[in-house]
Specification:
The protein is α+β, with helices and mostly antiparallel strands and about 250 residues long. It has one domain. The chain is about 30% helix and about 30% strand. The chain has 6 helices and 10 strands. Strands 1, 2, 3, 5 and 7 form a 5-stranded antiparallel β-sheet that branches. A hairpin with an 8-residue loop joins strand 8 and strand 9. Helix 2 packs antiparallel against helix 3. The longest helix has 22 residues.
């Protein structure tokens, strides 16, 4: 009996140390990881390019690890660009290359369920979630607008509609799908170094909670500086009231 009691006390002490360790850290913390060589850039149309032959959008891949240091599950809720590319596509993928938007995964989910691959089904269905006291890796893309002349010459004349078709029908569906158009490596490297659009905002929502706010992280991809705002104890009603005040005071 005494031996069992010792094990219980030891378990409780270790649990307390574990909880103290995680709760001494920010609720959510992001670490940027080196991107693998097999993760391609994506090339698409530039928003508001009236002539349709002057600019393109080059989407550069980034990889992050999201650490959840609290006893509640959270979901990857939002990616927001802070500069003049906010209206461009938001691409977020899990570590297996699937988009985190369930709408685009219904076909795969249905196939996994019918073939009784329940573990894979569970992983894909919850692929935007970070469980309590754990971490998950994600890929996302950041758009840079450059001149269409940056695309390497091909045998056939370059048509803008082909860029649009290749982008939406091919590249957007899968992390690992490459563009059939090429851009020289030194141009890509220079875009990474510039980091003109390097400031982004990530939002993480507590799962199954429609009444309260989220975690918001203002992140700089060049310096890796991050600022966490915790709105999880603020009701949605309070947030809307504050937003209304800000609008009225402008």
């Amino acid at each position: 009996m005494k031996k069992i009691l010792k094990y219980i006390i030891l378990f409780l002490v270790l649990g307390l140390i574990c909880i103290t360790y995680f709760y001494s850290k920010p609720a959510v913390f992001i670490t940027q990881s080196k991107i693998e060589k097999n993760i391609p850039i994506k090339i698409g149309p530039a928003v508001n390019d009236i002539k349709n032959d002057t600019f393109i959008a080059v989407y550069l891949p980034y990889k992050i690890k999201v650490q959840n240091n609290r006893f509640k599950k959270i979901e990857f809720g939002l990616l927001k660009y802070k500069h003049n590319v906010e209206h461009y596509e938001k691409f977020i993928y899990d570590k297996n290359g699937f988009g985190i938007d369930k709408i685009f995964n219904y076909g795969t989910l249905d196939s996994l369920y019918k073939n009784q691959k329940y573990l894979s089904y569970f992983q894909l269905y919850h692929n935007n979630e970070i469980f309590s006291l754990s971490s998950e890796e994600f890929y996302f893309y950041l758009p840079y607008v450059i001149k269409i002349s940056s695309i390497e010459e091909t045998d056939k004349p370059l048509q803008y509609k082909e860029i649009i078709k290749d982008f939406f029908r091919n590249q957007a569906r899968d992390l690992f799908k490459e563009s059939k158009f090429k851009i020289k490596k030194h141009i890509i490297d220079s875009l990474y170094r510039k980091g003109n659009n390097s400031e982004v905002i990530f939002r993480f929502d507590p799962s199954n909670s429609n009444e309260y706010g989220s975690y918001s992280i203002d992140y700089n991809l060049i310096t890796n500086k991050q600022v966490l705002e915790d709105y999880t104890n603020v009701s949605a009603k309070q947030i809307l009231m504050e937003m209304r005040k800000e609008i009225l005071n402008k």
